[in-house]
Design goal:
Elements lengths: L13 H4 L31 H16 L13 H11 L4 H13 L4 E12 L12 E8 L18 H5 L6 E2 L10 E10 L6 E8 L6 H7 L3 H12 L6 E9 L6 E7 L12 E11 L4 H5 L2 H22 L10 H13 L4 H16 L10 H10 L7 H23 L1 H4 L7 H16 L2 H6 L6 H23 L7 H34 L3 H24 L6 H20 L23 H22 L13 H20 L4 H34 L5 H23 L1 H4 L2 H8 L7 H44 L7 H4 L1 H17 L2 H25 L4 H19 L7 H4 L2 H13 L3 H18 L7 E9 L4 E10 L12 E8 L10 E2 L10 E9 L2 H4 L5 E8 L7 E9 L18 E4 L9 H8 L4 H19 L7
Antiparallel strand pairs: 1-4, 1-8, 2-3, 2-5, 5-6, 7-8, 9-10, 9-16, 10-13, 11-12, 11-14, 14-15
């Protein structure tokens, strides 16, 4: 039968509306644009004027004949609801007035109370067994005054329903036997005329059946049952017992009530009689509007819901807000009243809501999450037998339509859900959840059994949508002017768009599809797009590299290569792939363009270097940055070359090695070119300068720029990833080839830069060396009356000013190099001055103090040269020489004996023999007691093979012991092991014995009657080690001391040479003459080898 309101046209089967599945690989497509999937036309929700008028009449009628108290949050005033309906149906005021009058003239409906007696609990037990056989009588009492229905306003009576309500209007439930908690679940329709004068009455009774006394006694369980038997004996046979009643005024009820009501007693004997669970609903019968008479209630409610929801969405859009799925209080009130009056079940209301929302979703903009509630409700209440065939078909069509529409949105999700809108990911995820929930429904499985699995449908849809998106992008980037350069730029833009889309898929979209449907969108999109890109890039490069590549085309190809490299890096690693990708080995398509890329890189860098030097004024950038602008520009230029090399990252190992060699060669060449250019720039700027200080400033900046360049060049192995390259080329290159090639290039460039830096620093040092030499010469020539500390002040002030200036203008590395050169030069000048003033202690003293102060100056509290650089061999030799030259003659004599004592301590060989002595000092007597015990293993100095030894004892140095004459032992004839056993005492204070060099000199001589005595050897006993010299107590047992004999140095001693140079010092000359004599004696009797 034709319906009054138009029904949506039936759509083709689901598979015809689903996205067409591609049957061939995307790489085989030849058409410039892929065929579009069939567009889904959303079902119309608009009504014709006649349909709208009938539906409006239905809505007005619902409001006019409203029953019951309003629900919480619902609208109470009918005028407000009528105004809302006028807006929702877009009615003009006159039209609204006419329709309202027409609705008011319609016949009133039959008012009914739909009462469902659910159950009761805790009722009285009236039978002997302690239970009851309850049943209920219910009906409507009409014509009662406004207060007549109140239970408290009339006397309690047992039989309100039975005695007051006509029997034909009385309804009765079944009898539930032997229970105190009966369950009925029975529904009754009770008609009434006026809600204000009608009351609902329910009486609960216990069915009383005729039983014998024997039966009752058998059921007796307690004393209460016995009393019940006596009571029943006094009443009529078969009279039912009253259990309680419920009385409700209809005007106090809401449209729907579902609660427990207390059973009221007629007396106070048993006030607690239990509760009864009732469901009450105020409904209509025989509604007058034409829509109600010609359409099923469910269909009319569906169209009303569609109309109101459409208005809600449109109203929010007009206010620049999106509808969140919440109905306004007016719409919620009207729909609730209509569903209640039409007695629509919850299931049919959910069905209507689903159909309305699913249709409107395809044409209006509102959250897809609004569809989840009706889906859940239908799934929870689904019983296929509830729906008629037409309704089942309508539900199946709604499933198919929404699925097809959802797939069409998914196919175009990049444009439908743009990431520029913040809530797009959430909207897509909500749509997927709705589709997943719908396809999981039992209703969907029963009504659409032939539908493929949702993940497969979505996967094919995404694949098709990805291809369509690619072709749209390709068409969008199509150049207006046809040419290879324009085509390359268009292809580059297309690849960059694809990369951006894949990044979005990976970071946003793929997570949504993976979490919802376990679909890897990113991998699918990557595989499809890389096939499409590969074909177009290969065709383009084949056409371009066939002829000479221009610089502009080379740059375009390089950018395209870099973009393809980035695209490939997004894909899975080779170990995780199922097969070969179309972009594998794409670098070979660009191989002919490599020479032009390398040449352009060098040319651009050279131009930048030349421009940077030409614009450089050779002024430091700041206090902390001591190089100029060209060094910064050069660093940026080299960083760009390294960046280009990293971008290229050529996959073939051997070719990658050759490319890296070229990059290193060009970089090193640019470094040397820069050195030449920056020096020429310095000469150009200083040509017209008369101020030497300005020229020095420029020279400082130049060497700083070169040092900065050296640091940058030194980072090439890291920037160009030599270590990774060495691992890659290990299998194709000979052992050490990379070291011999790349490192040799680098070391050559660093050596050249180092030479340039040293040359510049050498020039700066030469400007200071003359001043240092001049001040040192003045230092040694100053008057004797000037103190050494004052004599060095001009030199120190000169160095302070110059070094502070250099430290301010040079970087640390160059300043350290300058200090090293100046320190070396200073030491050379000092050595020359020390040599020329060897015999002048005063000049040497000044040079010694100057050396000490210069060491402190060049160390500069750790900011200058380190101690290892200061304390060179030259420095140590000069320090020793000046230490000696600055000493007095007596100090030199003391140093001489100190050295002989040290020589004595280090001598272990008794090749010349040895002497044994015992020495002690008695502080109380100020006496040094020496016991000369023996000598042994003396050299035979006489021709008879023996010697006539004796020992001479002297306290040295003589200037410390001027009053003590030398002592001698007895002479022993022909004895190489003489036993002297002689004791000598020296009256001497303790103080001189404790000085450095104080010693007892034991000279062993061979007595010669005819000539001078021969020297057997010398032994030195340091006096400060003699027992009793430092202690307060007298020495006890004195140990023996065995001293090997030694000879004076045969080649001359530096101290003796220095003393000898002091011709005017008689004491020095006497001492030197004596020591030379001893040395001469020693040289005549030096031991022969083999003794």
């Amino acid at each position: 039968m034709a319906t009054l309101l138009s029904q949506p046209q039936r759509r083709p089967p689901l598979l015809r509306q689903a996205i067409k599945i591609r049957r061939r690989r995307v790489r085989d497509l030849q058409d410039p644009l892929a065929p579009k999937a069939q567009e889904i036309e959303p079902p119309s929700h608009h009504l014709s004027p006649e349909e709208r008028a009938l539906l409006y009449e239905e809505a007005l009628y619902t409001v006019l004949h409203r029953l019951g108290q309003p629900e919480p949050n619902h609208v109470r005033e009918a005028s407000e609801l009528l105004r809302y309906l006028q807006e929702a149906f877009h009615m003009e005021p006159e039209e609204h007035r006419q329709m309202l009058q027409q609705a008011q003239k319609l016949e009133k409906p039959i008012f009914c109370l739909k009462a469902t007696v659910k159950q009761a609990k805790g009722i009285l037990g009236k039978d002997v067994s302690g239970f009851s056989d309850p049943y209920c009588l219910l009906g409507i009492e009409q014509g009662v005054g406004p207060q007549g229905g109140s239970p408290g306003s009339r006397h309690r009576q047992k039989a309100v329903v039975r005695h007051t309500i006509p029997e034909e209007q009385t309804h009765r439930t079944q009898v539930i036997t032997q229970t105190l908690n009966p369950v009925w679940e029975e529904t009754f329709i009770l008609e009434f005329e006026d809600i204000n004068t009608s009351s609902f009455h329910l009486d609960m009774w216990d069915m009383d059946t005729v039983e014998s006394v024997r039966q009752k006694l058998g059921e007796l369980t307690d004393l209460h049952g016995l009393r019940r038997i006596f009571k029943e004996a006094r009443k009529d046979k078969g009279q039912d017992d009253f259990l309680g009643n419920v009385v409700l005024r209809l005007q106090d009820l809401r449209c729907r009530e579902d609660q427990w009501y207390r059973l009221e007693p007629c007396t106070e004997t048993y006030p607690d009689r239990g509760q009864c669970h009732l469901q009450l609903q105020l409904i209509h019968k025989r509604r007058a509007p034409k829509a109600s008479r010609s359409q099923p209630s469910y269909t009319v409610h569906l169209h009303l819901l569609q109309q109101l929801v459409s208005h809600e969405v449109t109203r929010h859009q007009a206010g620049s807000t999106s509808w969140d799925g919440s109905l306004s209080p007016q719409a919620a009130t009207i729909l609730f009243l209509h569903a209640t009056q039409k007695d629509l079940s919850d299931f049919h209301q959910s069905m209507a809501q689903w159909l309305a929302y699913s249709r409107l979703y395809q044409s209006l903009e509102f959250p897809s999450s609004c569809l989840l509630h009706p889906i859940t409700s239908i799934e929870y209440q689904w019983i296929q037998g509830r729906l008629k065939g037409e309704q089942l078909e309508e539900l199946a069509t709604s499933f198919s339509n929404l699925l097809a529409y959802g797939l069409s949105l998914i196919r175009k999700f990049r444009s439908v859900f743009p990431l520029s809108v913040s809530d797009s990911p959430a909207r897509l995820q909500s749509l997927l959840r709705v589709l997943v929930q719908m396809c999981k429904m039992k209703a969907f499985g029963e009504l659409c059994p032939d539908s493929p699995p949702l993940p497969r449908l979505v996967t094919e849809t995404l694949r098709t949508g990805t291809v369509e998106w690619f072709h749209l992008k390709q068409q969008h980037h199509q150049p207006m002017v046809q040419g290879m350069l324009e085509a390359g730029k268009a292809l580059l833009s297309l690849v960059q768009d694809i990369i951006g889309d894949l990044h979005q898929c990976r970071h946003t979209w793929s997570k949504i599809f993976q979490n919802t449907l376990k679909i890897d969108l990113f991998s699918m999109a990557f595989l499809e797009l890389q096939w499409l890109v590969a074909k177009r890039v290969q065709d383009h490069t084949a056409a371009v590299v066939g002829s000479p590549v221009s610089p502009e085309m080379g740059e375009s190809l390089f950018q395209l290569y870099v973009s393809l490299k980035e695209l490939c890096q997004l894909g899975p690693v080779p170990a995780e792939r199922d097969g070969v990708l179309a972009l594998d080995g794409f670098h070979r398509w660009f191989q002919p363009a490599i020479p032009s890329w390398l040449q352009k890189t060098y040319s651009v860098a050279l131009a930048r270097v030349q421009r940077a030097v030409q614009m450089d004024e050779l002024v430091p950038l700041g206090e902390l940055t001591k190089h100029s602008t060209s060094a910064v520009d050069l660093s940026t230029c080299f960083a760009q070359i390294s960046h280009t090399a990293r971008q290229l990252d050529w996959p073939d190992p051997e070719e990658a090695f050759m490319i890296t060699v070229k990059f290193v060669e060009d970089t090193c060449r640019l470094a040397l070119v820069y050195c030449s250019l920056i020096k020429a720039r310095a000469r150009e700027l200083s040509a017209g300068q008369k101020d030497q200080g300005q020229a020095a400033n420029m020279l400082c900046v130049v060497v700083n720029d070169m040092e900065q360049l050296r640091l940058v060049i030194g980072k090439l192995p890291t920037q160009l990833a030599w270590e990774a390259l060495e691992q890659r080329v290990g299998a194709v290159l000979e052992q050490g080839q990379l070291q011999n090639t790349l490192h040799a290039q680098l070391q050559g460039a660093l050596a050249g830069l180092g030479h340039e830096i040293r040359t510049g620093v050498r020039t700066l040092a030469e400007q200071l060396e003359a001043g240092i030499a001049r001040h040192i010469q003045k230092l040694v020539g100053v008057k004797e009356s000037v103190l050494p500390e004052d004599a060095i002040l001009p030199l120190m002030k000169f160095l302070e000013v110059k070094l502070c200036y250099m430290n301010t203008n040079l970087v640390q590395e160059n300043f350290s190099s300058l200090l090293t050169l100046l320190w070396t030069h200073t030491l050379t000048v000092l050595m020359e001055a020390a040599a020329s003033h060897r015999s002048c202690p005063l000049a040497s003293s000044r040079l010694k103090i100057a050396l000490q102060n210069l060491e402190i100056c060049f160390y500069a509290e750790g900011c200058g040269l380190p101690p290892a650089a200061l304390h060179t061999t030259t420095f140590q030799a000069l320090q020793r020489d000046l230490e000696l030259q600055a000493a007095s003659s007596r100090e030199l004599i003391q140093k001489y004996f100190c050295s002989r004592i040290q020589q004595q301590a280090e001598t272990a060989s008794e090749e010349l023999g040895a002497v044994t002595v015992k020495a002690s000092y008695r502080a109380s007597e100020q006496k040094l007691r020496v016991e000369l015990l023996s000598a042994s293993s003396l050299l035979p100095l006489d021709s008879n093979g023996s010697s006539d030894p004796f020992v001479q004892l002297t306290l040295e140095p003589r200037h410390e012991f001027p009053e003590l004459a030398p002592r001698e032992t007895q002479k022993h004839k022909k004895d190489l092991h003489p036993l002297f056993d002689e004791t000598f005492e020296f009256l001497v204070p303790a103080e001189p014995c404790q000085k450095d060099g104080a010693c007892l000199l034991l000279t062993v001589l061979d007595h010669d009657t005819l000539g001078a005595d021969d020297l057997e050897g010398e032994a030195f006993l340091p006096l400060r080690s003699v027992p009793g010299l430092t202690g307060a107590e007298e020495p006890g047992e004195v140990p023996q001391t065995r001293l090997p004999l030694t000879y004076p140095a045969l080649n001359g001693d530096p101290i003796l040479q220095l003393l000898e140079s002091r011709k005017g010092d008689r004491e020095a000359q006497v001492f030197v003459r004596l020591r030379r004599q001893r040395a001469k004696q020693a040289s005549q009797h030096a031991p022969r080898p083999g003794r």
